[in-house]
UniProtKB/TrEMBL annotation:
Domain of life: Bacteria
Residue spans crossing the bilayer: none
A Pfam family of this chain: CO_deh_flav_C
SMART domains: CO_deh_flav_C (SM01092)
Species in which this protein is naturally found: Streptomyces mirabilis
Keyword Oxidoreductase recorded: yes
Name by which UniProt lists this protein: Xanthine dehydrogenase family protein subunit M
Length: 327
C-alpha cells in the first residue's frame, strides 16, 4: 500500500474544501481500501466523510424516496418503506456481497464501486481503465464474465453493482453537491458512463463533487417488483446476469413496465424494447417469453461469454414471470 494521509470531517463544507484540494472521499471503504492494498488505487489524501449528515431515508414532498448517500446497504435493504414500496431495491441489496460488507458499505459507495475485472485488479496486466492507453488484456484474455452490451475497443468490463440495476430500472436520480455549493441531479442512466475511448471516466462527477443522495421517483401506480441474480455460486458472487423488473398490472393489462439487466453491460442496462413489448398487453407466459426475446438486442459477445446472450433472455423471462405471474 502506498503512503497516504486521512482526515475525518464533520461538516459538509470541510469535506468539499478537502475534495476541492484533491482529497478522495471514503466512507465504508469496502472497495477503496481493497484496491489500495493491491496498489490499484493510490490516493495521497483520503477524506473520511462517514460523519456527514447524509444518512436518512425520507419521502420528499413530491413523494419521491430519498436515500442518503451514507445509508448503509443493510439499512436501506431493511427499511420498511424500501421493502414495501420497492422490494426490487431491497432484494438487489440483499443479494450483494456479504452481510459484513453490507453492514459497512454505503449506497453512495456502492454505485461508485469499480469493476471486478481481474485484469483491472492485476497491476501487471494491461488495463485502460487503470492506466489509460495501456491496452485491454480482457479483450484477448479470459472474458467469460465481461460485458456483451455497451463495450468498446478500449474496455469490456461490466459494472458490478446490483442495486444500481434496480435504480436504473426505476429511473432514479443521483443528487450531487459541488465544491462551490452548487447542487445538481443527474438521471441514473446518465450518471454511470459507458467506456468509449475513456474507460477511466466512469461517472458523471465533476472534480470534488459529493454524492448526497439517490432519489427514486414516486410512481403514481403501485409497482410490483423484484430482482433476480444468476451467478456461479449462491452467495458472495457477482452476477453473470441479473434482472430488475417492476410492473403495474390493472384490469388484466400491463400499464407500466420497468426492466433493467445487470452483469451484461458496461453500465446497468435498461431494456426499453422489452418494456415496450409489455405495455398494453395481457400478462401471460407467452408475453413474458416474447418480450424477453428483445433483452439481448445489440449484444456483441466476446470469445468466452457467448452464453450470456441466451442466459440474459432467460433471466429476464423468468423474472417477468415471477413478478407478473405465470398463466
Ligand atoms: Fe481494464 Fe476494462 Fe480491459 Fe478489464 S475490460 S482489462 S477493466 S480495460
Amino acid at each position: 500500500m502506498h503512503p497516504f494521509s486521512i482526515t475525518k470531517v464533520a461538516h459538509t463544507r470541510d469535506a468539499l474544501n478537502a475534495g476541492r484540494n484533491g482529497g478522495r472521499y471514503i466512507a465504508g471503504g469496502t472497495t477503496l481500501v481493497d484496491l489500495m492494498r493491491e496498489t490499484v488505487e493510490r490516493p495521497r489524501t483520503l477524506v473520511d466523510i462517514s460523519d456527514l449528515p447524509l444518512r436518512g431515508i425520507t419521502v420528499t414532498g413530491r413523494g419521491d424516496l430519498r436515500i442518503g448517500a451514507l445509508v448503509r446497504m443493510a439499512e436501506a435493504a431493511d427499511h420498511p418503506r424500501v421493502r414495501t414500496t420497492f422490494p426490487v431495491v431491497s432484494q438487489a441489496l440483499e443479494l450483494s456481497a456479504s452481510a459484513q460488507l453490507r453492514n459497512m458499505a454505503t449506497i453512495g459507495g456502492n454505485i461508485m464501486q469499480r469493476t471486478r475485472c481481474t485484469y483491472f485488479r492485476d497491476v501487471t496486466a494491461a488495463c485502460n481503465k487503470r492506466e489509460p492507453g495501456s491496452g485491454c488484456a480482457a479483450r484477448e484474455g479470459i472474458n467469460r464474465t465481461h460485458a456483451i452490451l455497451g463495450a468498446s475497443d478500449s474496455c469490456v468490463a461490466t459494472h458490478p453493482s446490483d442495486v444500481a440495476v434496480a435504480f436504473a430500472a426505476l429511473e432514479a436520480r443521483v443528487h450531487l453537491l459541488g465544491p462551490d455549493g452548487a447542487e445538481r441531479s443527474v438521471d441514473f442512466a446518465d450518471f454511470l458512463l459507458r467506456p468509449g475511448s475513456t474507460p477511466h471516466h466512469e461517472q458523471d462527477l465533476r472534480s470534488g463533487e459529493l454524492i448526497t443522495a439517490v432519489e427514486i421517483p414516486a410512481h403514481p401506480r403501485p409497482l410490483k417488483s423484484g430482482y433476480l441474480k444468476v451467478r456461479d455460486r449462491q452467495s458472495y458472487e457477482f452476477a453473470l446476469t441479473s434482472a430488475a423488473v417492476a410492473l403495474h398490472v390493472r384490469g388484466g393489462v400491463v400499464r407500466e413496465a420497468k426492466v433493467a439487466a445487470g452483469g451484461v453491460g458496461t453500465v446497468p442496462w435498461k431494456l426499453p424494447a422489452v418494456e415496450r413489448q409489455l405495455i398494453g398487453e395481457r400478462p401471460s407466459d407467452a408475453l413474458w417469453a416474447k418480450a424477453a426475446e428483445q433483452a439481448a438486442d445489440g449484444a456483441r459477445p466476446l470469445e468466452h461469454n457467448r452464453f450470456k446472450v441466451e442466459l440474459l433472455k432467460r433471466t429476464v423471462e423468468r423474472q417477468l414471470r415471477i413478478v407478473g405471474g405465470s398463466r
